[in-house]
Each structure stands twice: as structure tokens, then as C-alpha cells.
Amino acid sequence: MVKQKHVVIAVLLFILGVLAVLTLFPSEEKKVKKQFEALSRVVSKAPGENAITTARKVYEIAPLFDENCELIIPADSVSAYFSRAEMTSYVIRARAQFSDLSLTFVDLSITFPDRGTAKVVLTVKLKGKVVNGDRMDETREVQSTLKKIKRKWFFSAFEVVEVLKK
Amino acid sequence: MTSKNRLRQFFFPSITPKFLLRVVVVALSAYLVFSYVLIPIHIQGLSMEPTYHDGSINFCWTLSALFLKPQRHDVVAVRLAGHGVMLLKRIVALEGEWIEFRYGKLLVDGNTIEEPYVKYPCDWSLSPRQVEQGSVYVVGDNRSMDIEDHHFGQASIKRIVGVPLW
Predict the structure, then answer these.
(1) Which residue, among B84, B4, A1, has the nearest Cα to A9 in the 3D structure?
(2) Scanning every residue of chain B, which has its alpha carbon at the shortest distance from the alpha carbon of A166?
(3) Which of A15, A58, B82, B152 fits as disulfide partner to B139, beta carbons 3.0 to 4.6 Å?
(4) Is the dihedral of CA B145, B148, B151, B153 positive or negative?
(5) Structure confidence at residue A31 (pLDDT)
(6) Nearest to B134 by CA among B70, B79, B87, B52
(7) Can you tell me the mean pLDDT for A64-77?
(8) Of A121, A139, A165, which is closest to B85 when you measure between CB atoms?
């Protein structure tokens, strides 16, 4: 009976130890996923969002992006670099056009071509209601590149993949 | 065994090694079938109305993509970055064919194609274009929406995951 008790305690301690390691020392893949979760959180907008929440989210946008972020949208012939300030400005203006906005990332596939770069292929779902009442529902495949600078990951490129070419 | 005992055994089975093995086998089979063979899908959006309704449930039968060549008028699921979100569209033209929309009518290689599944009025016009090798041209059944708002075009056959079960 005493031995059984010791075994159970040892197993529980082992499980707690594993959980502690996973929580305190997340893998690079987890860190990259957290950046996408953060981006989803700051861009998404609930109906009736108050000014304080908006201000907090605006403050959190800029630190997600690299100094220069490349945006490639082949269908619209867009291929350009935008500064961190410009990206922040675009996101703020886009949010302002919606009364309700949801940005979600699905099916993330993360690879690390080198230690400081992460390439992510994912599906982006953008759903929302424009202030004039029109509804928007877009789903696209996107390839994103993140750069690691001083142990933090920053978005440095987004490319929309043309799955259906008109 | 009396009927009362049988009932009791059914709802409160004895935890024997055989029982545990059965649970593992059933759970593993269910995981494999519903992850890779019969993928449950929740249809969102209006692009396939009235054939498939927004909010309806179905399954994506993936074995058809492995063994059958896609044909015109087949409804297929086209994957984006993964299986979490897919596009449900109908094949209207095959590789090498010229597709065109003229005042709402579909033309393939210059011939008008009857589309009994298109129930809503359509006024689309799209200049002729050839479907690339290894691709099919997919469109939704709901052509009442503005052509600019409808997500359609040619997709690689490799992206076809399967067909809806019903």
C-alpha cells in the first residue's frame, strides 16, 4: 500500500514536471503560433468595442511587425514593403471600417529554414460587418515569414496564395 | 445471465483488458476514418446555394479523389492550407479546355453547357481563358451574386480533397 502511494505520487510529480517545462520553456513553434494568436486578438473587433480596448489593441499592433514588412497579393498586383508604422496605420484604418471583425488563423504549418526564420503556410479567415451594414467573409491561403530578433518573432512578410485563379 | 444483468453489463461494463482493447480499437478507427476518409464538414457561405445550404452538415469522402478522375459537374472540396477550411465548388471545365461566361451562360470550347443546378439568375460575363494542365475550373452554383464577389477559378487537381457524401 505504501509502495503504491509512492508510485502514484511519483507519477503525478512527473506529469507536473513535464507540464511545468512545457509552460515555462515553450518551443519555437509555440512562440510563432502565439504571435498569430496575438495578431488575431489585436485585429479582431467585437461589436461595441470601447475606446480603452481599441487604444490597447492599437498599442499592441506595432510590436508584432518587423521594421519592414513585405505584402504580396498577386490578384491585386500588390508587391511592396511597408514600414512598421505604415502596417500599423493600415491595420488601424481597416479596423475602423468595421463594427464587427473576426480574424482567425487555421491549419498553420510551420517550418524553420534557418534558426532566425519561420515560414508559415496557413488559412486566414476574415469575417466582419462593415459600418454601412455590408457583411464580409473572406478565406484565403497565406504564406507568412517571421524573423527572430532578440528571441522574439516578428512578422516580416505576407503573401496571399492564389488557390483559385480566375 | 438475466436480462437485468445484461443491461447492467451494457451500461456499466467490466473494465477488463479485452474491453480496454475494444475501446482503443474503436477510438483509433474513429480517429482514422473521420480524419482521413470521411471528414466532417460544416458548410458556411452562400456560394453553393441552393445545392448546399449555409450551415448544413456533410462529410467529405476523400477516397473518390484517390481513385476517380474529376469530371465536369462534380462538386469537390478544394483544400487551402489544410483540411480545417476547404472550398466547396463545382467543376465546370477540365484541363486544356477554354472556359467563358457570356451573359450568364457557361461556354466550354465555344459550346454552351447546360447547368440545371444553377437556379438563380446570372448575368456574368468573363472572357475566354484556358484551363492549365493539371487544373480544373471550379465555380459555385450561386451565380446571383456579383462576379467580383464570387470566389472561383482554376485550381490544381492536387488540391482536390474529395467530394461531399450527399
Answers:
(1) A1
(2) B153
(3) B152
(4) positive
(5) 95
(6) B70
(7) 93
(8) A139
CB nearest B81 (choices: A123, A137, A165): A123
Determine the average pLDDT of the residues in A144-158. Answer: 96
Closest-CA residue of A relative to B151 is: A164
Residues ≥6 apart with Cβ < 8 Å to B87: A139, A163, A164, B77, B78, B80, B138, B151, B155
For A33-58, how does the pLDDT look when each residue is reduced to its tens digit (9 = 90+)? 999 999 999 999 999 899 999 999 99
B85 phi/psi in degrees, rounded to 5: -135, 125
Handedness of CA B149, B155, B160, B166 (dihedral sign): positive
pLDDT for B67: 85
CB A124 within 8 A of CB A101: no
Backbone angles phi, psi at B87, to 5 degrees: -100, 130
pTM of the model: 0.85
**Active-site hit among B14, B35, B47, B64:** B47
B84·A139 Cβ contact <8 A: no
Through-space distance between the first and last CA atoms of chain A, rounded to whole angstroms: 71
Interval B47-73: pLDDT, tens: 999 999 999 999 999 998 888 899 999
The answer to whether B125 is a known catalytic residue is no
Contacts of B78 in chain A (CB under 8 A): 163-164
- The residue in chain A having the minimum alpha-carbon distance to the alpha carbon of residue B46 is A137
Q: Find cell 498577386 and name the residue.
A: A74
CA dihedral sign of residues A124, A128, A131, A133: positive
Q: Which residues of chain A does B45 touch, with a Cβ-Cβ cutoff of 8 Å?
A: 137
Domains along the sequence of chain B with CATH: 39-164 (2.10.109.10)
- The residue ranges of DSSP E strands in A45-150, in sequence order, are 65-73, 78-83, 98-114, 117-130, 135-149
Report the mean per-residue pLDDT for chain A: 92
Give residue A2's pLDDT band: very low, low, confident or very high (50, 70, 90): low
- Write down the H helix ranges in chain B: 3-11, 17-32, 63-67
| B1: pLDDT strictly greater than 70 | no
